[in-house]
């Protein structure tokens, strides 16, 4: 007996069972004989459609073709844009200001905000600087380290402090860092132009050897050309074990190594001895050069004189609304066609082709909702007035050249007529030696911001990163800094119909949050340059606090 197989075993076809009359194909209808070729083709096509299953094959194709043909006839460019925009996606701050200004001007309850803003800052106790001094002698050096510090003022500061930490950890001699000339900052300043080099060397004398040049006998091996020295390309945030296991043997072998670039090439999390050297370099050894320090202190004194009605207390604001910052953000404001032309040109100048790559999609509304848009001078003014700072409050504005400054600065000056900049506080002769050097100008701003009662950061970056830590180091562990949540601000500023009382309540909540976050303890992913507790500071006990208060 043979097993049944559904497929014939030979080339002969097996007879199939007759189909049920119910499912038999009906004969195709007959049409009159066509007289022309088009008629003939049409009749054949129609006959095919009417055959069994033919309609199921061709009907979807015909439908899709018709839809595509219809879509191609449409002009999408003439379609009106949707009327709905997600909350926080549109810049409506000018309308908000126009609505709130009458109520804002009539509010007289905010005269003492600058005196009371940090009233509840020290519930957990104050901290004080505590960087242990070294009494041990330095053993024989294992070699020389030459680093190139890239970026602007505070990115270079990162490189310097990390270089001190690495050199001390490897028992190496540090050559005074070389500042890399950058096409954006275009500042040819050397180390001694920005910092007090003699003071730097003297402060580190018991911890790290620092020299200004390499001995000639060593450089002879490299034809007195530093580019011939072996250069390490070190990954960002490398651990100290990498330096010990990879960098140190090569340095001992070659007697000198070069690391370029060097910013952020050392992990935030490091052994206490390495963190101590970072603290020592940043908070004690790095002091601005005498010309910068002198002018900076002069501006601090002038700001205090102009703030006599508030006991010499003033606010400093780091405002990032320069043309390149606005262009890079890809945010849209209220400048219309002129703004678009300016921003497109600025993006092409600074980042040729980066924003016009094929397939690149930019969503300005989403950028604003995510809190990534730079705050305008108007928005900063609204925020500070809502927090309780009145017209009599003195403000120091640390900024480059504001984009479309006359238009954008007008409302801020209406809200705070005592606002000052370094250009307004100095004569042309005083500022002239620094004006063509972006890092030196930034160092002057840094000094004035460091000594303000309140510091306001609006965009992030290395400048506020270092100021946060430096202010904590000076002011008992509290940064005395307002750091707004710009995602919340985007939603709030997109509501032109909000009342002044409700707006002010929201802003006071932002202010209180900044106060509560003033003192923070460093986590492994934090930097000692912004969070110095507890690596660079320790908590004061009650006796020390009492002695300090009696002394003052």
Automatic annotation (TrEMBL):
CDD domains xref list: O-FucT_plant
UniProt feature, compositional bias: Low complexity: 8-28
Residue span of region Disordered: 1-35
Alphabetical UniProt keywords: Carbohydrate metabolism, Fucose metabolism, Glycosyltransferase, Membrane, Transferase, Transmembrane, Transmembrane helix
Pfam families: O-FucT
Keyword Membrane tagged: yes
InterPro entries in the cross-refs: FucosylTrfase_pln, GDP-Fuc_O-FucTrfase
Signal sequence range: none
MF (Gene Ontology): glycosyltransferase activity
One GO BP: fucose metabolic process
Top-level taxonomic group: Eukaryota
Membrane spanning stretches: 54-71
UniProt xrefs under PANTHER family: O-FUCOSYLTRANSFERASE FAMILY PROTEIN (PTHR31288), PROTEIN ESMERALDA 1 (PTHR31288:SF10)
Family: Belongs to the glycosyltransferase GT106 family.
Protein name: O-fucosyltransferase family protein
Native organism: Solanum bulbocastanum
Lineage: Eukaryota, Viridiplantae, Streptophyta, Embryophyta, Tracheophyta
């Amino acid at each position: 007996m043979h097993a049944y197989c559904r497929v014939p075993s030979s080339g002969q076809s097996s007879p199939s069972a007759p189909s049920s009359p119910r499912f038999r194909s009906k004969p195709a209808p007959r049409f009159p004989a066509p007289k022309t070729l088009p008629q003939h083709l049409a009749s054949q096509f129609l006959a095919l459609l009417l055959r069994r299953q033919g309609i199921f094959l061709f009907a979807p194709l015909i439908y899709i073709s018709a839809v595509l043909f219809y879509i191609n006839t449409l002009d999408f460019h003439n379609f009106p844009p949707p009327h709905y925009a997600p909350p926080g996606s549109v810049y409506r701050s000018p309308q908000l200001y126009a609505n709130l200004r009458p109520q804002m001007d009539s509010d007289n309850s905010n005269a003492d905000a600058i005196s009371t803003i940090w009233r509840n800052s020290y519930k957990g106790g104050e901290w004080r600087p505590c960087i242990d001094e070294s009494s041990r002698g330095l053993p024989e050096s294992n070699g020389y380290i030459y680093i190139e510090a890239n970026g602007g003022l505070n990115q270079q500061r990162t490189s310097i402090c990390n270089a001190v930490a690495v050199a001390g950890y490897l028992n190496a001699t540090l050559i005074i860092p070389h500042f890399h000339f950058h096409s954006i900052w275009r500042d040819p300043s050397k180390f001694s132009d920005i910092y007090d080099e003699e003071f730097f060397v003297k402060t580190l004398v018991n911890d790290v050897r620092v020299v200004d040049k390499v001995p000639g006998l060593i450089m002879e091996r490299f034809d007195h050309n530093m580019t011939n020295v072996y250069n390490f390309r070190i990954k960002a945030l490398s651990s100290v074990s990498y330096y010990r296991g990879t960098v140190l043997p090569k340095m001992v072998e070659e007697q000198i190594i070069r690391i370029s670039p060097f910013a952020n090439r050392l992990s935030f999390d490091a052994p206490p001895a390495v963190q101590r050297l970072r603290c020592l370099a940043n908070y004690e050894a790095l002091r601005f050069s005498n010309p910068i320090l002198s002018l900076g202190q002069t501006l601090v004194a002038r700001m205090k004189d102009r703030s006599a009605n508030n006991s010499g207390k003033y606010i400093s604001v780091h405002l990032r609304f320069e043309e390149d910052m606005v262009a890079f953000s890809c945010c849209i404001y209220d400048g219309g066609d002129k703004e678009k032309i300016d921003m497109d040109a600025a993006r092409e100048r600074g980042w040729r082709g980066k924003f016009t790559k094929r397939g690149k999609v930019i969503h300005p509304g989403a950028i604003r909702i995510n809190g990534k848009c730079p705050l305008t001078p108007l928005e900063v003014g609204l925020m500070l007035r809502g927090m309780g700072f009145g017209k009599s409050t003195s403000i120091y504005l640390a900024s480059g050249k504001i984009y479309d400054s006359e238009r954008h600065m007008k409302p801020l000056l209406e809200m705070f007529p005592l606002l000052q900049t370094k250009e307004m506080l100095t004569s042309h002769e005083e500022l002239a030696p620094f004006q063509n050097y972006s890092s030196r100008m930034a160092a002057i701003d840094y000094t004035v911001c460091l000594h303000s009662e309140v510091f306001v950061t609006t965009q992030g970056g290395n400048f506020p990163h270092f100021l946060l830590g430096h202010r904590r180091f000076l002011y008992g562990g509290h940064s005395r800094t307002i750091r707004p949540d710009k995602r919340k601000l985007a939603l709030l500023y997109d509501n032109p119909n909000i009342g002044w009382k409700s707006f002010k309540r929201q802003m006071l909540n932002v202010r209180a949050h900044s106060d509560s976050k003033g003192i923070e303890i460093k986590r492994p992913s934090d930097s000692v340059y912004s969070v110095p507790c507890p690596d660079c500071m320790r908590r004061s006990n009650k006796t020390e606090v009492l002695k300090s208060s009696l002394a003052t």
